Structure formats: C-alpha cells, structure tokens
Amino acid sequence: LRLLEAQLQDQRREHEEEVEALKNQVDAMKEEMERQQQAFLQTLQLSPEVQVEFGLQQEITRLTNENLDLKELLEKLEKNEKKLKKQLKIYMKRVQDFEASQTTVLAERTWQKRTIQVAVQRKEKDFQGMLEYYKEDEPLLIRNLIT
To answer: What UniProt keywords are attached to this protein's entry (predicted)?
Structure first.
C-alpha cells in the first residue's frame, strides 16, 4: 500500500512538473506571438517601400540563421565521415590480416589434402579431370586460378 502511495506521489509530481513546463512553454509562445503581432502592426503602418525593405531584412535574417544551422550540420557530418573512414581503414586492415592468416592456414590444409588426394587417385587410377576440395577452400582456389 505504501509502495502504491509512493508511486502515485511520484506520478503526481512528474505530472505537475510536466504541466508546469507546458504552461511555461505556452507563456513563452504567447509572448512571442504578441511580439510578432506588434511588429506586424507596426509594419502595416509603414509605407509600402519600407514594408518591403523590412520584409527583406527579416528574410535575410531567417536565411542567415538557416545557413548557420546548415553549416553546423555540415561540419558535424564531415567529422562523422572522417571518423567512419578511420574506422573503415581499421576494419579493412583487420580483415586483410584475418584473410592473410586464413589463407596461410587454408594453403597448408589444401597442400595436405592434395597430397592425400594424389595418393588416392594414383591407387584408383580413375582420372576424370575433377578436383576434390572443401567448400571453405573455394575462394582460395578461385584466387589461385585467377593469379
């Protein structure tokens, strides 16, 4: 029962904090709207040329702010790109090292298997021009055939 009461009090406190934050947000929006309304009314009282100039100034300010935001975003993306390229280089090096170690192991295994296969083929004397290999050795065989 006490646990439920504590949970209810926590929820009530969180709810009250949310309501207070939303009220503050509404008040700030009201103030901004009033400010914009006052600016609008003032511009309506100005001559058409001054209205156009004022509108252009506001648009220039808006575009400048938007440009700054886009520059910040571009810088963040460039930093992220550099970081990802470094990670890619590291992973590529790891893959190459791993492939090199696997190639060595596979080459040794293949050599041992070939020796066994040759011995078996000589005993059977049934040559069909086919080569037996393990499925995991296929990339190595293809690479060796190409080179």
So the answer is: Coiled coil
Rounded to whole angstroms, what are the CA distances from 87 to 70, 80, 84, 99, 125? 25, 11, 5, 18, 53
- Backbone Cα Rg of the chain: 37
Sign of CA dihedral 15, 17, 19, 25: negative
Chain centroid offset of residue 56 CA: 38
For 3-146, list the strands marked E by DSSP: none
Do residues 108 and 140 lie in contact, with contact meaning Cβ atoms separated by under 8 Å? no
Rounded Cα distance between 6 and 36, Å, is 45
Token output for 87: 């990670």
d(C-alpha 72, C-alpha 34), whole Å: 31
Cα dihedral 64→66→70→72 (10° resolution): 70
User: Is residue 131 a contact partner of residue 110, using CB atoms and an 8 Å limit?
Assistant: no
